[in-house]
Amino acid sequence: MVLPLRQSKVVAATAVSVRFRRSGCSKSSARTGCFSARRAAGFWYQTKIDRVQVTEPDSNLPGFVIQVDGSARFNPGPAGIGIRVVRPDGAVISEVSRAIGVRTNNQAEYEALLQGLQEAAKLPSGSNVVVETDSELMFRQITGEYRVKDPALRSLHSQAVELLVRTSNVKLRLVSRERNRATDKLAKMASGVLARKRNDGAA
């Protein structure tokens, strides 16, 4: 009569141990704050997201505007990024149209943003900068409204948030595709060049 009771206790203890192992915590470490540490890390990351500065689409802030866009054919497929840097007086001072290899469309959008933030770092120190994107998914992931479900985007998302919170003079703005048309053309041109190269190589 006693033996089955002991066996059931062993089974129960084993089940608990398995649950801890699957969660990435040992039984002892869970008791000493493993889960609390995870919650703290999540809270710490959320505070970073909360520090990302955004501005409304129709706001007219003085300063430079950097327009970014990414494009991928076949998703995933040959991809490219486009960036335009616009002076406060409206003059375009630089453009980037570059193939980035095989990516999904969302990966290309993030890589365009990262390149745009690098372009922002080249501007005169203290310049006010607004970075414009027409990717609603990326914008809302960076502002914390959407979760980053795709594992392939998590590292890109972390890099973008890190760069945005480092620079108090840079704000992010979601714009219409119509407003971003010229940058979209640069991105599609780059992805098209890569697609043609791949096709020529296959031939």
From TrEMBL:
GO terms for molecular function: nucleic acid binding; RNA-DNA hybrid ribonuclease activity. Residues 60-192 form the RNase H type-1 domain. Gene3D superfamilies: Ribonuclease H-like superfamily/Ribonuclease H. This is Ribonuclease HI family protein. It comes from candidate division WOR-3 bacterium. The lineage of its organism: Bacteria, Bacteria division WOR-3.
